[in-house]
């Protein structure tokens, strides 16, 4: 689905992404791991149109999408979430979901004056869809809660729910487990797996929790210093000496070797 070819993103003399090439296959849940500063989030930002690349190419289903802005990629079904959730804190959870689809009737002045019936009918449909999404995510009890009152994990579920309000094809999840307790992280993981299996979503997941990555992701891609270091199953990645040294640390590598001896 997504092909990244020799991608570079420089900030002055700093090469945040330095010739990365990878593929995200349709129907996969691909993990993207690496130490802080490896270039993972910058790679996401370039693919999702938030940053232009310095050079290189990104294609989606064979179409060149390099440098397209986020709103155009949104229409193509490419969405991303963020390390810190971006909710409308004063609105309810249901209202946050209802805002996602573009081109709503109430957005035009003409309809606001003369098309109130059309607006009301569309809002009923959106509210119904939002409630279906909340039920899917097992957070129906939060529908009328102000989004600003949610816990970190609940906000991550809300962000996932937003992707369900449109026809998403591929979703980039940036540290979905950051600040989330284990129970809610399991709920998020269950939702991702169901969206993948039941609705055909493709995911690419940045995450530091290797138990979470191992449960969900195949393949796993490792980045270090802006480059792709390794790719394979979670089990094989965890046994890769280059990955152990670059991602998990030299100390852990030596400890692992010592325990084996």
From TrEMBL:
Q: Where is the ABC transporter domain?
A: 2-250
Tell me which UniProt keywords the record has, alphabetically.
Answer: ATP-binding, Nucleotide-binding, Transport
The uppermost taxa in this organism's lineage are: Bacteria, Pseudomonadati, Pseudomonadota, Alphaproteobacteria, Rhodobacterales
Entries under Pfam families matching the protein: ABC_tran, BCA_ABC_TP_C
Coiled-coil annotated residue ranges, if any: none
What is the name attached to this protein's record? Branched-chain amino acid transport ATP-binding protein LivG
Please give the GO cellular component terms listed in this UniProt entry: plasma membrane
Q: Which CDD domains match?
A: ABC_Mj1267_LivG_branched (cd03219)
Database matches in SUPFAM superfamilies:
P-loop containing nucleoside triphosphate hydrolases
Q: Which GO terms describe its molecular function?
A: ATP binding; ATP hydrolysis activity
Q: Which residues cross the membrane?
A: none
Give the domain of life: Bacteria
Q: Which InterPro entries match?
A: AAA+_ATPase, ABC_AA/LPS_Transport, ABC_transporter-like_ATP-bd, ABC_transporter-like_CS, BCA_ABC_TP_C, P-loop_NTPase
